[in-house]
Amino acid sequence: MPGRVARLRRGGGTVRAVLVALAAAFFALSLESAALGEPYFDQKERGWFWYEPFSARTGEGRSGTSERQLTVKEIRERGERLFEAALLSPTRENVRAYMEHQKRVLERSEEFARVWKRVLWESPALDSTVDNPVSAAGAEISRNLRKTARDGVIEKISRVGKLVFFFRSDCPFCRGQAEAVKTLERRHGIGVLAASLDGRGLHPLYPHFVNGAAQAARLGVERVPTLFLFVPSQRKIVRIGTGYLTLGEIRRRLHVVGEEVLGGGREEGKELFLLSREGK
């Protein structure tokens, strides 16, 4: 296509160059639609990928009284040939031939879309919208259900575990993280063990702390803030994340890790070494 466009431009035809650009945009849109994974029944412009009989008028594909179906490759190639002919030599006959081709493949696409929808309605296992509604009302219900499930897991985690919050007193991100952790602590009642790496607390939210430098080294903590989930009954500690995390992100990660811990999943953790005495 770039070569053909260049030849047209050398001919000095501004109008033809515009037509080339518009035609290229049309086909790019078809390819983009496929790349985005849109449902087949919403992609009528991709119609040349469906089976279609040869035209009786042109005599293509005729052998006596029998008529065979085009393959996907043949349909695509035929559409490209008709498009090139209509673009490079836009006579009424060439343009009409391409339009007729498009009309036939769009009709086939519509039939495919109709059957696709019927099969989807009758096969819930194939319909992703059953569990993930696309309507505004359905999506809101789905979000509320996910929130309820997430909060339920966090509430259970708060009864059997606690957060270990590694920080430094001179770390700006740690101060911001302390606010999110304190909010989580207040809303869900989860315990928080503040572990300082420089022997100082974070006033006013976490003035009391434990000296966590040695344990941070054993757990591979090199950057702060860092959060772990500690479950004393299992003597397991699992990293939630490093770097500043929003309250919503902490909740999402606790949900994922919490389900593994509560469900006896394969989430790997490390034994927590005893932390030193609380700072003053």
Secondary structure blueprint with pairings:
Blueprint: H1 2-10, H2 14-35, E1 62-63, E2 66-67, H3 72-88, H4 92-122, H5 136-160, E3 162-167, H6 172-188, E4 191-196, E5 209-211, H7 213-219, E6 226-231, E7 236-242, H8 247-262, E8 278-279
Parallel strand pairs: 3-4, 4-5
Antiparallel strand pairs: 1-2, 3-6, 5-8, 6-7
Helix pairs in contact: 3-4, 5-8
How does this structure look, described?
By secondary structure, this protein is α/β, with parallel strands linked by helices. The chain has 2 domains: 39-128, no CATH class; 152-279, Glutaredoxin (3-Layer(aba) Sandwich), CATH 3.40.30.10. The chain is built from 8 helices and 8 strands, in the order ααββαααβαββαββαβ. It has helices at residues 2-10, 14-35, 72-88, 92-122, 136-160, 172-188, 213-219, 247-262, and strands at residues 62-63, 66-67, 162-167, 191-196, 209-211, 226-231, 236-242, 278-279. Strands 7-6-3-4-5-8 form a 6-stranded mixed β-sheet. Strands 1-2 form a two-stranded antiparallel sheet. α3 (72-88) packs antiparallel against α4 (92-122). The radius of gyration is 32 Å and the shape is elongated. The protein starts with a helix and ends with a strand.
